[in-house]
Specification:
Length: 577
């Protein structure tokens, strides 16, 4: 009902916006028509636009390259930061044998443009309008979004323009601010946002798509984002853990999944603007899935009897060449090839998995065979796809209503209660408190499994007899906790990290940050190429940023480290795979 109500209100505001926009008799060609301007939008329209643009900055769009904002027809987006992080951490499959050739400067132009010319520009346009009207809660939401966006830019690019950004034509070459200063600015924005959220005299946005104007939840989200930033800096700031624990002591942060900050994709339309989950839109098409699922992730979940595997992945077939059926050079070329020596030496699964899990290895770049209707694809969680109930038929077939699953009514998970439990487990383990670490790891797994299982209701035709039992779930959680308790040192870190990665399916920002922050898990499948080049500890600056701003010089290597990434390189920290 909440989703239906949101979309009805959304349609109303979109229609109203279109009617008011049509009253203009002149088109100012100095303004990009894809962006809101003060003449076209009230603070309410800005908030609706900003919230979705924020989600698309993280998760991209259903075309994989550009797409309209379905709230207002706003700015365009690329693949998003989250899929980039998922590829690097084997949550998604990466299709290249060389890192630096895979992540070029032009590949992140859209995300940079969206952040600056889209989100930050809209915030600068909206803020004076909201201040004049006393709309402090509108401002608070914008401050929260800005804090998340600018800190994420630091996470991927290091030093970035901020203090002088979005000030053209007065400043056309903004200077780079240090990552430390941008993080400090994000913390200050969140402090201001909390004050603005608690202003009970301010009018609420007419349409607020995250928490439906529940500002007690917004305060919790702001404090949770502050915790995330403190955790991120724990290697370089001696006071970060103390500040993190002070918020824990307050109890005013996301502790229950009912307070999770997620973006809910309505999933009601494939026409432009496409409002389905972006990964659903890319993969639930009549000619079959586009993405290859990660053999590392699927293999880990199979090995561990993870009860979420049927929610995460949908198998279009029950037989994989080289496993249940004969090798096939046309569809899975590697099924006729010997395992690379570094796979053999490391004991890694090569090429294929059993039981119909048709994926690819990290760095497999062997073209695109006609296997779209065979590949395992995204399931009902988090993209609103199909629950795997052994249906074993291709997705999105026009003559088969059962093949569409949840229609793309998925989520982008941003700040969740299970994430906080894993953060607390990480801090406890870093302080050699394995008992507390186990408690929070199990709490995080428990919450996230319950969250994923709840998504089966999105698939109206799911055969629920294939759901794991309560005992299956309990046994899995106990097994992970026991394995953690019986391990020591690096092995405990590895178990924590593997569970962290599986739980964060759908949020590659968190897995990429965790990997650089800790160096775990050390069980990640290596690149197919034995010498794949430098693992990206950072991204190249976008091409458009370098060519248009005299104060940005392109870095020459991806081995540079973000200010909070204080881990060494070398054999003990496997950033070469």
């Amino acid at each position: 009902m909440k989703r239906i109500n949101q979309y009805i209100i959304l349609a109303f505001f979109t229609g109203l916006f279109m009617l008011t926009s049509c009253e203009s008799t002149e088109l100012d060609l100095t303004n990009d028509p894809n962006f809101l301007t003060p003449e076209q939008a009230s603070p309410d329209f800005f908030i609706a636009s900003l919230e979705e643009d924020f989600a698309r900055q993280l998760d991209g769009d259903a075309n994989g390259d550009s797409g309209d904002n379905y709230v207002t027809g706003g700015f365009q987006n690329g693949d998003g930061l989250s899929p980039l992080g998922m590829e690097l951490t084997r949550i998604m499959q990466m299709r290249s044998r060389n890192y630096e050739s895979t992540y070029q400067d032009s590949d992140v132009d859209d995300e940079w443009d969206n952040a600056y010319r889209g989100i930050l520009k809209d915030i600068r346009l909206m803020t004076p309008l909201a201040e004049e009207a006393g709309l402090t809660r509108h401002i608070g939401i914008a401050q929260f979004i800005e804090a998340y966006v600018i800190s994420s830019l630091v996470d991927f690019f290091g030093d970035v323009p901020y203090s002088e950004a979005v000030q053209a034509p007065d400043i056309v070459n903004p200077v780079l601010d240090t990552g430390e200063s941008v993080y400090a600015a994000a913390q200050s924005l969140l402090d201001q946002a909390i004050v603005n959220f608690t202003n009970t005299t301010a009018a609420n946005p007419s349409l607020e798509l995250f928490y439906n104007n529940d500002y007690s939840k917004w305060v919790k989200a702001a404090n949770t984002l502050k915790m995330k930033l403190y955790l991120q800096t724990r290697l370089v700031d001696p006071g970060a853990v103390t500040a993190f624990n002070a918020i824990v002591a307050s109890g005013n942060y996301i502790t229950d999944s009912t307070d999770d900050l997620d973006w809910n994709w309505p999933g009601t339309s494939a026409a432009q603007p496409d409002n389905r989950h972006p990964r659903y839109g890319l993969n639930y098409v009549s000619n079959g899935a586009s993405d290859y699922c990660s053999n590392w992730l699927m293999g880990l979940m199979q090995t561990n009897n993870d009860p979420r595997i049927r929610y995460y992945f949908y198998r279009q077939t029950n037989a994989v060449p080289g496993q249940e059926i004969a090798p096939d050079e046309q569809t899975i070329r590697c099924s006729l090839q010997p395992s690379p020596i570094h796979y053999v030496n490391g004991g890694f699964t090569f090429c294929s998995l059993p039981n119909g899990y048709w994926g690819r290895d990290h760095g497999d770049d062997e073209g695109t065979p006609p296997d779209g209707p065979k590949r395992t694809t995204w399931g009902v969680y988090p993209v609103g796809g199909r629950f795997d109930d052994n249906y074993f038929k291709p997705v999105a077939q026009p003559t088969d209503p059962l093949s569409f699953g949840g229609g793309g009514t998925g989520i982008t998970p941003i700040l969740n209660a299970f994430m906080v439990d894993f953060w607390r487990a990480e801090i406890a383990l870093a302080q050699s408190d394995a008992t507390t670490a186990r408690t929070f790891m199990e709490a995080g797994i428990t919450k996230q499994i319950a969250k994923a299982r709840g998504f089966v209701s999105l698939d109206p035709n799911a055969d629920l007899s294939f759901e794991p039992t309560i005992m299956d779930v309990a046994n899995f959680i106990t097994a992970q906790g026991d394995a953690f308790e019986n391990a020591s040192g690096r092995d405990q870190w590895n178990i924590l990290a593997e569970n962290y990665f599986v739980c964060h399916y759908g949020n590659g920002i968190e897995t990429y940050n965790f990997y650089r922050r800790t160096g775990f898990p050390n069980s990640l499948q290596p690149n197919r190429e034995g010498s794949p080049g430098t693992f990206p500890r950072i991204m190249f600056y976008p091409n458009q940023a370098v060519t248009s701003n005299a104060n940005i010089t392109q870095r020459t290597t991806l081995s540079e480290q973000v200010f909070w990434d204080n881990n060494p390189s070398g054999p003990a920290f496997p950033f070469s795979n």
